[in-house]
C-alpha cells in the first residue's frame, strides 16, 4: 500500500500596512469608553490602508516577502489562489494582478476564492488536495494568499473591528510549518444574513448579534463533526486557533468549547478556563490585537503569530483550527506543527512589520478613507501617485484608475535579496505607465 503524502503549509509571510489608528483615539471620537474596545473587544490598534495601498498591493507585498525569505523557486508555482472578500473587480481576480506584478510563469493556474472570511481556508483545502496530486511534478507549489480590508461605517458599532492585512503561504508536500491531519471533513453551511458587502457600498453591512450567534453555532456543528469523525478532541490539541474578527470573539469560541467539554464530562484534566485559554489560544492572538480583523487571513495571522512567538515551543504540537465565513460556511480542522522550526524562524515578518508603523489621528484616518474611496473611481489616476522611495522596502503602489484600468507602479528601489527569476524592478501595471 502506498504511503499517504503529507501536505500542508510550508512557509508563511505576513504583510502589515504601515498606518494604524489606536482604539483609544477611535473611542474618544465615538464618545465611547476606551475599555469597551480595549477590553470588551480585546483590540488595541487597527491597521488602516493608505490611498496607494489596496488588496492587490498587500497581496503582492506578502508574496514578495514570502519569496525573498523562502527557498522556493517561483518557477515551481503551479497554482496561485487568493482568498478574499475585498475583490477589486467582478471578473478579474486579484490573483491575476498578483501573477502579473510578480512576473510569475505562465504555466500557472490563477483564481480567487470567495466565501467571506472562509475564503482563505477554501483556498488552503483546495491547494492541499492539488498538492497531493502534483507532489512529484515540476510545478508542485501552491501559493495561497489572503488579503482583505475590513471597513464599516464611521461611528458604527462595527468600526472598532476594522483592520487590514495579507498573509501568504506556500502549500506543498514539504509542510515545515503545518502538516494537515487527513481527517474526514468537518464543515457546515447555513445561509444567513449576518454580514455582507453589497457592491454599491464601500463598507460592510452587519447584524452584529446574529453574526456572533451564527459563528458560535457553526463552531458547535463543526467541532462535533470533527470529534465524531476523527475520534480526536480536546485532549489531543496543544493549541486551539479561531477566526478572529476581534480577539474577544476567540475567547468566546474557546469558552464555548471548554464549557461543552465539561458539560459532557470530558477533558477532565483541564485547568481553569482562563488558564487553559492563556495556554492554548492566546499565544497566537498578539498580531490580531495589533491589526484588527483581516477577514480571510485572521485565522492564519494567529497561526503565524503562534509560529513566530512560540518558535522554540511549538515543534510537533497539534493545533485545532476553526474557520468561519459569514453567510455562512465554516470548517474545523487540525494539523501538527512541523519538526524543523529553523525553516521559518525569523521569516514570517510580523514583529518586523509592526516596527515603525505610523499612528494616524482621527482626522487623518477619515481623510485616508475619503481619498481611498475617491481613488477607487474611474479617472482617479494621477502620476503624482507614483511611489517615491521611502526606504521601508515597499515596492508596489496603487496609482488610481485610468480608462477603467487599475494602474500599479513598482518602485525601482533595488530588492534587498533579489531572486533570479523574481524581477520586481521592472515596471508592471495593468496598463503600461505613460508619463505625461
Ligand atoms: N469596559 C469593558 N468592557 C465593556 C465596556 C467597558 N466600558 N463596555 C462594554 N464592554 C463589553 C461588553 O460587555 C461586551 O462584552 P461581552 O461580549 O463579553 O458581553 C463587549 O464590550 C462589546 O460590547 P457590545 O456587545 O455592547 O458591543 P456592540 O454591540 O457595540 O458591538 C459587535 C460589538 C457586535 C461585535 C460589533 O463590533 C460588530 O458588529 N462587529 C462586526 C461583526 C463581527 O465582527 N462579528 C463577529 C462574528 S461574524 C465573523 O466573525 C465574520 C467577520 O469577520 C465579520
Characterization of the model:
- The structure is a single chain.
- With 436 residues, this protein is an alpha+beta fold.
- The protein has one domain: Thiolase/Chalcone synthase (Peroxisomal Thiolase, Chain A, domain 1).
- 32% of the residues lie in helices and 22% in strands.
- It contains twelve helices and 17 strands.
- The protein has helices spanning 23-29, 34-41, 55-69, 94-102, 119-134, 208-230, 247-263, 273-280, 286-291, 298-309, 350-354, 362-375; strands at residues 8-15, 19-22, 45-48, 77-83, 109-113, 141-150, 163-172, 178-180, 187-189, 195-196, 205-206, 239-242, 318-325, 329-337, 358-359, 396-402, 405-410.
- Strands 1, 4, 5, 6, 7, 8, 9, 12, 13 and 14 form a ten-stranded mixed sheet that branches. A three-stranded mixed sheet has the order 3-2-15.
- Helix 1 (23-29) packs across helix 2 (34-41), helix 3 crosses helix 4 and helix 6 (208-230) crosses helix 7.
- The longest helix has 23 residues, at 208-230.
- The radius of gyration is 21 Å and the shape is globular.
- The N and C termini lie far apart (66 Å).
- 48% of the residues are buried.
- The structure holds acetoacetyl-coenzyme A (CAA).
- Acetoacetyl-coenzyme A is lined by residues 33, 35-36, 39-41, 117, 157-158, 160-161, 194-195, 206, 208, 211-212, 215, 243, 245-246, 248-249, 293, 295, 324, 326.
Strand content: 15-25%
Mean pLDDT: 90
Helix content: 25-40%
Query: What is the oligomer described by this structure?
Result: single chain
H-E string: EEHHEHEHEHEEEEEEHEHHHHEEHEHEE
Are any ligands bound, and if so which?
acetoacetyl-coenzyme A
Quickly give the CATH architecture. Answer: 3-Layer(aba) Sandwich
What is the structural class?
alpha+beta
Classify the fold: give the CATH topology: Peroxisomal Thiolase, Chain A, domain 1
By CATH reckoning, the class would read Alpha Beta
Q: Which homologous superfamily in CATH is the superfamily?
A: Thiolase/Chalcone synthase
By DSSP, the count of extended strands is 17
Distance between the termini: 66 Å
What's the Cα radius of gyration?
21 Å
Global morphology: globular
**Number of discrete helical segments:** 12
Number of domains: 1
Low-confidence stretches: 415-436
> Largest sheet at a glance?
10 strands, mixed
Amino acid at each position: 500500500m502506498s504511503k499517504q503524502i503529507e501536505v500542508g503549509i510550508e512557509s508563511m509571510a505576513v504583510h502589515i500596512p504601515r498606518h494604524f489608528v489606536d482604539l483609544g483615539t477611535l473611542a474618544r471620537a465615538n464618545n465611547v469608553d476606551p475599555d469597551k474596545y480595549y477590553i470588551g473587544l480585546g483590540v488595541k490598534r487597527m491597521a488602516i490602508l493608505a490611498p496607494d495601498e489596496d488588496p492587490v498591493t498587500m497581496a503582492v507585498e506578502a508574496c514578495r516577502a514570502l519569496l525573498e525569505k523562502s527557498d522556493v523557486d517561483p518557477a515551481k508555482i503551479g497554482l496561485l489562489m487568493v482568498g478574499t472578500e475585498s475583490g477589486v473587480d467582478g471578473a478579474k481576480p486579484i490573483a491575476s494582478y498578483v501573477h502579473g506584478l510578480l512576473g510569475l510563469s505562465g504555466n500557472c493556474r490563477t483564481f480567487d476564492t470567495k466565501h467571506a472570511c472562509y475564503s482563505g481556508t477554501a483556498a488552503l483545502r483546495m491547494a492541499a488536495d492539488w498538492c497531493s496530486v502534483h507532489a512529484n511534478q515540476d510545478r508542485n507549489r501552491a501559493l495561497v494568499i489572503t488579503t482583505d480590508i475590513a471597513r464599516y461605517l464611521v461611528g458604527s458599532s462595527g468600526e472598532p473591528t476594522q483592520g487590514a492585512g495579507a498573509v501568504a503561504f506556500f502549500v506543498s508536500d514539504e509542510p515545515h510549518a503545518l502538516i494537515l491531519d487527513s481527517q474526514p471533513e468537518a464543515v457546515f453551511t447555513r445561509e444567513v444574513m449576518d454580514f455582507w458587502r453589497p457592491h454599491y457600498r464601500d463598507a460592510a453591512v452587519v447584524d452584529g448579534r446574529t453574526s456572533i450567534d451564527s459563528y458560535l453555532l457553526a463552531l458547535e456543528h463543526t467541532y462535533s463533526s470533527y470529534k465524531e469523525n476523527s475520534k480526536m478532541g480536546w485532549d489531543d490539541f496543544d493549541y486551539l486557533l479561531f477566526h478572529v474578527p476581534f480577539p474577544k470573539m476567540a475567547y468566546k469560541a474557546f469558552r464555548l468549547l471548554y464549557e461543552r467539554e465539561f458539560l459532557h464530562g470530558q477533558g477532565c484534566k483541564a485547568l481553569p478556563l482562563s488558564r487553559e485559554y492563556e495556554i492554548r489560544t492566546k499565544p497566537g492572538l498578539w498580531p490580531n490585537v495589533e491589526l484588527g480583523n483581516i477577514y480571510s487571513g485572521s485565522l492564519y495571522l494567529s497561526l503565524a503569530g503562534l509560529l513566530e512567538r512560540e518558535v522554540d515551543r511549538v515543534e510537533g504540537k497539534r493545533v485545532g483550527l476553526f474557520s468561519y465565513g459569514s453567510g455562512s460556511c465554516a470548517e474545523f480542522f487540525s494539523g501538527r506543527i512541523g519538526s524543523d522550526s529553523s525553516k521559518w524562524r525569523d521569516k514570517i515578518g510580523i514583529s518586523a512589520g509592526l516596527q515603525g508603523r505610523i499612528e494616524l489621528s482621527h482626522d487623518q484616518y477619515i481623510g485616508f478613507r475619503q481619498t481611498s474611496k475617491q481613488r477607487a473611481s474611474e479617472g482617479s489616476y494621477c502620476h503624482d501617485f507614483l511611489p517615491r522611495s521611502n526606504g521601508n522596502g515597499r515596492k508596489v503602489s496603487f496609482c488610481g484608475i485610468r480608462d477603467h484600468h487599475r494602474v500599479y507602479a513598482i518602485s525601482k528601489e533595488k530588492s534587498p535579496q533579489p531572486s533570479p527569476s523574481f524581477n520586481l524592478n521592472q515596471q508592471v501595471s495593468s496598463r503600461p505607465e505613460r508619463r505625461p
